[in-house]
Write a structure and sequence with these properties.
Helix content: over 70%
Radius of gyration: 25 Å
Shape: globular
Oligomer: single chain
Strand content: under 5%
CATH class: Mainly Alpha
Number of domains: 1
CATH topology: MetI-like fold
Number of helices: 10
Distance between the termini: 54 Å
Length: about 280
């Protein structure tokens, strides 16, 4: 029986659960903030403000020497090239592993339960994808700098391995979460797995696959700049050099170019999504 004076339609039956999970989340967040020594009020202390203003004052005016701008433009182009080549290699690794690890393309699973050997193969590939994406591209770059030396090659290989794991995992999830009726029908009627993928599974998921791929290319451009900090070429390598020389004007110019580069990448990816969508 409803409480007196309370309109039943205005009562929220789930309020206890929402309050409980909100308090539980807060209880978990507090020790996390304590563990990270999160103290943002330090930023507003007089000494911190003086240091910040002194650091920022070195950024103005940005360095505008013609020779320096030419070098920065060349490094910006190299940054895009590192990201693009790394993505191409990542796709070359991710696509075969995606097709091999996607359960909906398994012929042995059509009766209802996948055979043991195909199941083990798919699990092994999924574990390989976990390993690839678990190691940050910065760590891969450190490894490849030791193997192939300083330069863009290390950055390309680092992006290729980490992004292969990311792409393979998400591609498989996209393909398995979509409508598999047409794919299953083709496989049951004797189609090859490649044919079922090209004529049923891919067309129904092409837009989502394309969107995620373009997004990852944007991320690769940002990553390629960071990889330069460990000697993997691109804008990041020049940025860390200018920081070590305490040349704030050069740092300011490089950061402005990097912002412009990310904006152009975002604009280009948006245009590509509209064309392919």
């Amino acid at each position: 029986m409803a409480d007196a004076g309370v309109v039943p339609s205005l009562r929220d039956p789930a309020w206890r659960g929402r309050v409980f999970w909100t308090l539980a989340g807060a209880a978990l967040l507090v020790p996390m903030l304590w563990a990270t020594e999160f103290r943002p009020w330090i930023l507003f202390e007089p000494e911190s403000l003086r240091s910040t203003l002194r650091f920022l004052s070195d950024f103005f005016p940005p360095h505008s020497d013609a020779a320096f701008l030419k070098m920065v433009a060349h490094e910006a182009w190299r940054t895009v090239a590192i990201a693009t080549c790394g993505m191409v290699l990542a796709l070359a690794l991710a696509i075969p592993m995606t097709l091999a690890s996607t359960a909906v393309l398994s012929v042995s699973a059509l009766p209802g339960r996948m055979h043991a050997l195909p199941f083990l193969v798919r699990q092994a590939i999924r574990w390989l994808l976990i390993v690839l994406r678990s190691v940050p591209e910065l760590v891969w770059a450190l490894v490849f700098v030791r193997v192939v030396g300083l330069g863009p090659t290390a950055g390309v290989l680092a992006i290729a391995l980490t992004y292969a794991g990311m792409l393979g995992k998400v591609y498989a999830e996209i393909l398995e979460s979509g409508d598999a009726h047409a794919t299953t029908a083709l496989l049951r009627n004797g189609s090859s797995r490649t044919g079922a993928f090209l004529y049923a599974l891919l067309p129904t998921n092409a837009a989502e696959l394309t969107s995620y791929t373009v997004y990852r290319w944007e991320c690769a451009i940002r990553s390629s700049a960071v990889l330069g900090f460990v000697g993997a070429g691109g804008l990041g390598q020049q940025l860390i050099t200018s920081l070590k020389m305490f040349n704030g004007a050069e740092v300011s110019t490089i950061l402005l170019v990097f912002v412009a580069l990310v904006w152009v990448a975002d604009w280009a990816s948006g245009r590509l999504r509209r064309v392919l969508g």
